[in-house]
Amino acid sequence: MIRTAAVLAILLLGTGAPLQAQGPTEQPHPWEPVIIEPMEREFLNSCASCHGRDGTGAGFLTRLFRGIDPGDLTQLSARNDGTFPMERIFSVIDGRTEVAAHGDRQMPVWGDRYMDAVMSEYGPDEINETRVRNRIYELVHYLQSIQAVDAEPEN
Prior knowledge:
Elements: H1 2-13, H2 40-46, H3 48-51, H4 86-94, H5 110-122, H6 128-145
């Protein structure tokens, strides 16, 4: 009983020693915005076989798929009055919600392929859709980074 009272007194009153913090003593880092870097690696892996390493449409598969013009991806902004059509490019790459009335799709549906890849890596997970969207946006940002810049007009 005396022993129990002593333990209770130490717990309630302390030992006189300064209290030590338990667990990590560093302050957590504040949330920082996610910055999506242009990913040349993703472009080379997923797109260059048709669109060429430089995006101008001269990929090695164009020799196999004769009559199919993959297009010059460095001219997307120029063909859109100088504005990069980010959401349109995202939807074309993703391909999962494209309207069937637009005709046959010759480009792979990368959204499905990327989802298959994350399902293989992570299994069913509630953030797989975010992983796929981020991967596509990395690719879209890379395409934005390779847009041709018009030369200054001569006087």
